[in-house]
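A quick aside before the break. I want you to see a complete sequence-to-structure record at least once, exactly as it would be stored in a machine-readable document. Don't worry about memorizing anything.
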Amino acid sequence: PVTVVRYTALREWRRTQALAHGVDSDVIITKDMLWQIAERNPDSLDQLRNLHGMGEWRISAHGEAILEVLRQHRK
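That is the input. The structure line, written in tokens, reads:
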């Protein structure tokens, strides 16, 4: 399903970000949050902001990149 494809893409993005920043993947964003994003498939920062656990610092640091991953896998 498309949700799994989005989740897999988001998980790979998260892994890359964690390696680049030298932190654990969950510091970037948790698995539960990745599933929530993959299922809801937001298409704006406001929609992303409304998801549980997406604080302003995550939106500022990663919001646009998350939306770009979703855009690449939108069907």
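Two observations worth writing down. The two ends are 11 Å apart (CA to CA). The CA atoms of residues 17 and 38 lie 17 Å apart. We'll return to this after the break.
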